What we know:
36% of the residues lie in helices and 15% in strands. The protein has helices at 7-12, 58-68, 79-88, 104-112, 129-135, 159-168, 181-184, 221-233, 239-249, 252-270, 290-296, 312-322, 342-346, 366-382, and strands at residues 72-76, 94-99, 119-124, 142-147, 172-176, 194-197, 212-216, 276-280, 304-309, 327-328, 338-340, 356-360. Strand 5, helix 7 and strand 6 (194-197) form a beta-alpha-beta unit. Helix 3 (79-88) crosses helix 8, helix 10 (252-270) runs parallel beside helix 14 and helix 12 (312-322) crosses helix 14.
Amino acid sequence: MHPSRHPSTRVARAPERPDPAFGGLVAPIYPATSYVRDSWGDYPGEHSYARDQNPTGEPAERLIADLEGGAEALLFASGMSAATALLDALEPGTHIVAPTHMYWTMRLWLENEGGADRWRVTFVDNDDLDAWTLAFELGGPQLAWLESPSNPMAVVTDLSAVTEIAHAAGAIVAADNTTATPVHTRPIEHGVDLVFHSATKQLNGHGDVLAGALVTTRQDELWHRVRAQRAFRGAVLGPFEAWLLARGLRTLFVRVPRSSATALAVAEALEGHPAVAEVRYPGLASNRGHAVASAQMIGGYGLLLSVRVKGGEDAARRVMTRLELFTDATSLGGTESLVEHRFRIEGAGTAVPDDLLRLAIGLEDADDLITDLREALDAELTGRD
């Protein structure tokens, strides 16, 4: 399809041509694990073995690369398999600079699975440009890992500014775009070299696929090593999961703006509530990253917000148990709204305060969600069960 078409049009009409075998509007699933060679021992269909190649996922890879403005995308069996494939493809001893507030499992991997023979890690405040500058003074092979807005603290990083700092120091820049999605932010347009997604979340959007994605701006040596990591590990996305992901992507520009608009309405409704100590959401003018978020995010601020409840951990957990329309479960980006007490989940070493509830907004009616939250908070004030 012509690149001048709006991304929402390109997504809604994916795949771009009907199934060549029967003309179906929905692409088929290819479950084959092996492919036939010709008389010369070559593969006429350019596929050899399913450990790293399956035609079912290729339309989704092309679409994600298109949405992010990258040269190529690779799908993986999970978000963490995508992220770790990138890290393991780095040169030994690479210095990784990462934000203090970031996806917790990724932080644990950086802290616990590295070591002097693999990489060095420096954590800096997400929005402290001076700290990013100082961190890169070590020199040598370096990678900046960015995440904006951060999960779950909703801290905004100036992607363009940090990327400029990193590139000046010779570093490669990767950005986790899971919470913003290419609907709201396209990190490559801000100079980022690689984009990461937990495609389990909003890219799929239905809570029924475990998947990851990496997008690159160039097919360089590092990218070839990432591709090799996927092949050797067998970390390719399965055909059924790839088909479900492609299906979910077709509604991306309907789902994400709806959830983001509702999240903003919820954040505005809860700010100032007498039982709330703070609402953390980049769409609020009170958020210290609001100006940067407004400049680099398009058409919304995402579905993720966090609420700090007055009275500490016990009060926060009581509010959570009173909610009827928010399910206590781990994830985000599905059709249903979820709530989590992240302090208890992350445990020792977390930077998340114990009074914080993370809300992942789904597709329910905004007024219903606001009423549910207000009733739970009001009950905390009055002591009602």
